[in-house]
UniProtKB/TrEMBL annotation:
It comes from the Eukaryota. Residues 25-116 form the Yippee domain. This is Yippee domain-containing protein. InterPro entries: Yippee, Yippee_fam.
Length: 124
């Protein structure tokens, strides 16, 4: 039982964030093109996801979290429109040297792309 104002421990759906201005670079879902994270939120490119190389970002939007997996200390997440796990959020790290991962997301590189938001109007 949860008290008023607290959320259940099993699932949580973050509130969708408003779209940033068109000139802001983003990481997007390869399948549905929904924005997932600002490129400014990148923490590291040196991560490994379940299907290969991944990136670590501070914040993510448009993802629906699954149930916590205590053995992995993480929550699998999927893009709201596409389904299929493509992202993991760390909720606790067992090792003090890994605390920087807590609350952050791993996005699999094979399932995202970087939208630089450049246009012909940006040319000198």
């Amino acid at each position: 039982m949860t008290s008023p104002g607290s959320s259940p421990a099993t699932t949580a759906t973050p509130t969708p964030l408003p779209l940033p201005p068109a000139h802001v670079p983003l990481f997007r879902c390869q399948q549905c093109t929904l924005p997932l994270a600002l490129t400014d939120s990148l923490v590291s490119r040196a991560f490994q996801g379940s299907s290969g190389p991944a990136i670590l970002v501070r914040n993510a939007c448009n993802v629906k979290e699954g149930e916590r997996e205590n053995k992995l200390y993480a929550v699998p997440a999927a893009v709201q429109n596409s389904g299929g796990a493509m992202c993991v959020r760390f909720f606790v790290s067992p090792d003090s040297s890994q605390k920087y991962k807590e609350g952050k997301y791993i996005l699999e590189k094979s399932r995202i792309y970087k939208d630089n938001a450049w246009s012909a109007d940006d040319a000198p």
